[in-house]
Design a protein that fits this description.
alpha/beta, Rossmann fold, SH3 type barrels, Elongation Factor Tu (Ef-tu), domain 3, 17 strands, 28% strand
């Protein structure tokens, strides 16, 4: 850690930054954030969000951690908001063969909005979470997300839709740490979460069975046929919710050589491609957003087309149009394209078309 950990404005006195509300989950990252900010001189308050019945263990874990660390904890019930803004859109998308990323929309629409509302009710200016990213004040006066010290834990992609009113008050202490350092702090504090495994699945579907979850809610996928790379009808598939762009395994086809999903068509048919044909030279984006709310300026950027992807060069042409000097593999409608320049998140949008 280098110096004081501050929000975007860069306040330098504790008198101006004495209270902060930390979004807690009971996990190691948010728990260690509490202790880091306490040692920085902040008066720390905690809040845990009950997003769904599946989150009750997280609420209980946060309550135990808050008691251990000596911070008051507020429980926010967000089940109705989460259902309307995250779960329902997720299920509708999967039934259409679109691959959504629910965390990206939960962050601005539910999680950070409710944390900010609770902070306002308590008279607290600043917010903090356990995300691995930084918030920095740029020369143009705009606070932007920047990558963390730990490249392996980079969560900037997930935060790109946060608006300026959140970024202006957000502190992300773990941007200055490696994960193992965070775990060691938790061990030193004798926290039970110190060596707990990281959650890798969608939080409201802990077993990872998306199809089973959506089916239990009455969802029905579009049906259609597999179409061979040459255009032949190969017969019906199992429903579009079983497939995504670039998928090779689990197709149940034997064509003599590897075959991939290239496109999930509007009518439910699945266009297949031979190896090498699942690459694309451009995208169309919708729901564009930037940290300051201004349109993203046309020009050259690097862009990530999924959370774990490496940024690649692109040209943003304006009006949601993106082209690549080198074709990229399997960008999927419903995922986001996030633009970076000079080490900062400049904006992004949701992939609607690939070509």
């Amino acid at each position: 850690m280098s110096g004081e950990i501050l929000p975007g404005q860069g306040f330098s006195t504790y008198e101006e930054q004495d209270k902060v509300l930390v979004g807690m989950s009971g996990g190691v990252d948010s728990s260690v954030v509490v202790r880091i900010l306490q040692e920085q001189g902040f008066q720390v308050f905690g809040a845990v969000i009950r997003f769904s019945p599946e989150h009750e263990p997280a609420v209980q874990a946060a309550q135990a951690t808050a008691q251990s660390l000596g911070v008051p904890l507020h429980v926010i019930d967000a089940q109705a908001d989460f259902e309307a803004n995250v779960v329902e859109p997720f299920c509708r998308s999967y039934c259409k063969g679109i691959t959504p990323n629910p965390c990206i929309f939960c962050n601005p629409l539910v999680k950070f909005r409710l944390l900010a509302e609770k902070a306002d009710q308590l008279g607290i200016r600043f917010l903090a979470t356990g995300h691995y990213a930084r918030v920095e004040l740029c020369q143009d006066g705009v606070c932007r997300i920047a990558p963390p010290l730990s490249a392996a834990r980079d969560q900037t992609y997930m935060l790109y839709r946060l608006p300026r009113e959140i970024l202006d008050r957000l502190i992300l202490p773990l941007g200055e740490f490696e994960k193992e350092d965070v775990r060691q702090i938790a061990r030193d504090l004798e926290l039970s979460c110190a060596d707990a495994p990281d959650s890798m699945e969608i939080c409201f579907i802990p077993d990872g069975d998306y199809v089973g979850y959506i089916r239990a809610r009455g969802g029905q996928p579009k049906e259609g046929h597999f179409i061979s790379p040459e255009g032949a009808d190969l017969g019906p598939h199992q429903g579009v919710w079983h497939y995504t762009i670039g998928q090779r395994k689990g197709l149940g086809l034997a064509l003599g050589q590897p075959v991939f999903v290239r496109e999930i068509k509007e009518n439910g048919d699945i266009q297949l491609a031979w190896a090498g044909q699942e690459y694309f030279t451009g995208l169309t984006l919708e729901e564009m957003t930037t940290p300051d709310g201004a349109p993203l300026a046309p020009g050259e950027y690097t862009v990530k087309i999924r959370s774990a992807a490496k940024p690649v060069p692109c040209l943003y042409e304006g009006d949601g149009k993106v082209s690549f000097p080198q074709p990229v593999r399997a960008p999927a409608p419903g995922q986001s394209a996030v633009f970076y320049k000079d080490g900062y998140v400049m904006g992004g949008g949701v992939i609607s078309e690939i070509f």
